Backbone:
């Protein structure tokens, strides 16, 4: 679900993962049609990093 959100509304996805400042910057970038593609790519990348961070945190909590 977040991947679809990252592609359609990249700025909103940043708010769902707790990065509101990046969301505002992404919204400014997304306002132009040319900026939509880099905003979507950035959003998908940030989402993948968020998922990786979550997996690492889960592994640290289970292991320790």
Residues:
């Amino acid at each position: 679900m977040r991947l679809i959100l990252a592609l359609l509304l990249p700025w909103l996805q940043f708010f769902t993962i707790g990065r509101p400042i990046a969301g505002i910057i992404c919204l400014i970038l997304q306002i132009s049609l040319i900026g939509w593609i880099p905003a979507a790519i950035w959003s998908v990348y940030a989402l993948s990093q968020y998922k990786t961070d979550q997996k690492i945190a889960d592994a640290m909590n289970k292991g320790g």
The chain has a mean pLDDT of 88. The CA atoms of residues 11 and 30 lie 8 Å apart. The chain has four helices and no strands. The radius of gyration is 13 Å.
